[in-house]
Amino acid sequence: MARLVILGGGESGVGTAILGLKKGYGIFVSDKGEIKEKYKKVLEHYGIDWEEKAHTEAKILNADVVMKSPGIPDTVPLVLLLKEKGIPVISEIEFAARFTDARIIGITGSNGKTTTTMLTNHILKEGGLSVGMAGNIGDSFAKMVAEKEYGNYVLEISSFQLDGIVDFKPHVAIITNITPDHLDRYDYKFENYVASKFRITENQESDDYLIYDADDEVIVNWLAKHPVKSILMPFSIEKEMGQGAFLKNGEIVLKINNETIKMKESTLALEGKHNVKNTMASSLAAKLVGIRKQTIRECVANFQGAEHRLEKVLKIQHVQYINDSKATNVNATYFALDSMSAPTVWIVGGVDKGNNYKELMPLVREKVKAIICLGSDNSKIVDAFGNVVDLLVETYAMEEAVKVAYKIAERGDTVLLSPACASFDLFKNYEDRGNQFKEAIKNL
After folding, report:
1. Class of domain 97-302
2. Which residues share a beta bridge with 156?
3. Beta strands in 176-220 (DSSP E)
4. On the CB side of 119, how many CA atoms lie within 13 Å of its CA?
5. Pick from 51, 152, 159, 382: CA 20 to 30 A from residue 137's CA?
6. Closest Cα to residue 296, out of 311, 280, 309?
């Protein structure tokens, strides 16, 4: 019996354990931290051997294959030791993909991948396809493959998951954009991070597709130097495309194999230029797997969007409150501010991943009337914008931030939570931050 060792007892680890068990592997799950109670119950239900708060090398180094959770860097001594011994260390998407013949749409990128994944899944489902949505979102891919066979999977895939692939090959790959993020995992070299994202195409063949943002210089320059085998499907809001998607006279135009689909930008459910791009990517993917024009048009008009991503919470006294807690980097906040059409009271701050706020300066000058800092250390934000806006207030709790916003905002304004930072100084995670924001608004 082949031995599968799983490092990390979270969603992807436990999903892989269930699939491995069904496929006849002997399984051992090892987590250096604590395993959550709900996952322990699942492991015990299946009679799977596990340990927490330690890695017992003797029980790990006899593996035939190791699945490593995306949170564990490739540089930890145990992983280096496994590789030295020639034991393959792979990611969950690589393991799970070996046990399904389903068609896969794989979506990666620094920002927009959750929205694009959810919208693509929505269109395929409404179009009558058998489809499962997994990866970085919801259930693990491996657990889905173990429990239900779908004809199609829409997978949100992080660069960490792509680092652990060997043969994984999506029929349709989407790269939404590439901006500096997680550079601590890539020796602080941006090109290593870019190469990691492009691994999504490395096993694609000439009848597969790569959908990408043709306005993103990083992607375009990389493709010029590293040609891929797949058929290119670019999208752009700046220029016309012979094949792919573009914006013309207020319409999104899709051109695929001599077929043209047009959709008015004004009918899209999601607001903002970045969401025009996410919509283009999802629509191209849906068309490539055979969804009808009419279904695509209807779906992009009625889609609800992702929670904590430019989520309209409430309108109070003609002031719109928007929760964009998922904006944990400057690039995501740039998109949010760019899509604001009303004077904006901006709530920003948290744990800074080496942010450069300069690129937000033109948008802040144009759109932001007041800034409310929300973090345990707001000094960088104060230094960056103190002289740019008329009013800047420092707060240290969500309830306080929302009360201040309520006082400042006038009829017709927007209050936007778009922190540009991680959340773990004052909150458990970005969901907790977004939920506290929504709760504080309801208590006004």
Report:
1. alpha beta
2. 107, 135
3. 209-213
4. 33
5. 51
6. 280
Interior/surface letters 118-135, b for 16+ CB within 10 angstroms, e for the rest:
bbbbbbbbbbebebbbbb
Q: In what order do the strands lie in the sheet with 414-417?
A: 311-316, 319-323, 414-417, 344-348, 368-374, 391-395
pTM: 0.78
Query: What are the φ/ψ torsions at residue 367 (nearest 5 degrees)?
Result: -115, -25
The pLDDT of residue 54 is 92
Alpha helices by DSSP H, 103-257: 113-126, 141-147, 159-162, 190-198, 217-225
Sequence length of the chain is 444
Assigned fold of 3-90: Rossmann fold (3.40.50)
Query: What's the pLDDT at 196?
Result: 86
Q: Which two tokens stand for residue 109?
A: 């990128």
115 is in an annotated binding site: yes
CA 344 – CA 360 distance, rounded (Å): 14
**Residue 375 annotated as lining a ligand binding site:** no
User: What confidence score (pLDDT) does residue 70 get?
Assistant: 87
Residues 6+ apart with CB under 8 A from 56: 30
| CATH dotted code for 311-442 | 3.90.190.20
Spans of the chain, pLDDT less than 70: 181-187
pLDDT at residue 182 in the model: 58
d(CA 393, CA 395): 7
Q: Where are the domains of the chain?
A: 3-90, 97-302, 311-442
> CA 281 → CA 227, 246, 271, 272, distances in Å?
20, 10, 15, 15
Asked if 389 and 371 touch (Cβ cutoff 8 Å), the reply is yes
What sections of 127-211 are H helices per DSSP? 141-147, 159-162, 190-198
242 is in an annotated binding site: no
